[in-house]
Amino acid sequence: MAFRKLIRESAFQLARHDLALFLEEHEEDLLVVFREELQQLDDEIPEENFFIDINMVGLGETILIAALRAIRRFLRSDIDRPLPENSSVVKITAGSGEA
């Protein structure tokens, strides 16, 4: 069992930087698909079930961007490096439908 873990860890170390680059190169495509899926989810949920109007697409996109950043930082071993001050953040406005 320890041998399998060694092989898995070795393969991960070889591929991690390429995986981070792949995610970075295809981030916009992933965001487009994610926006569409969240919009479909938002359309399927009756708004009367919510106490407030939540911009699901904007909120979900913000969460996905943060998750992608976290994954890239992990893959690049940048865990201890703080985020740059000028990093982009999506602004969410409640009920506007815009992100």
Report on the architecture of this protein.
With 99 residues, the chain is an all-alpha fold. It has one domain. It is 63% helix and 0% strand. It is built from 3 helices and no strands. It has helices spanning 2-25, 27-44, 56-75. α1 (2-25) packs across α3 (56-75) and α2 packs antiparallel against α3. The chain is elongated and about 55 Å long. It starts with a helix and ends in a 24-residue tail after the last helix.
Total count of helical runs of at least 4 residues: 3
Topology as a string of helices (H) and strands (E)? HHH
> How would a crystallographer describe the biggest sheet?
none
Q: How much of the polypeptide forms β-strand, as a percent range? A: under 5%
The SS-based structural class is mainly alpha
Mean pLDDT: 76
| Portion of residues within helices | 55-70%
Query: So what's the oligomer here?
Result: single chain
Query: How many beta-strand segments?
Result: 0
Task: Give start-end ranges of low-pLDDT stretches.
Answer: 89-99
Q: Domain count, please report it.
A: 1
**Radius of gyration in whole Å, from Cα?**
18 Å
Q: State the end-to-end distance.
A: 47 Å
What would you call the shape? elongated
Based on the model shown, name its key terms.
3 helices, single chain, 99 residues, mainly alpha, disordered C terminus
Map the helices and strands.
Blueprint (H helix, E strand, L loop, with lengths): L1 H24 L1 H18 L11 H20 L24
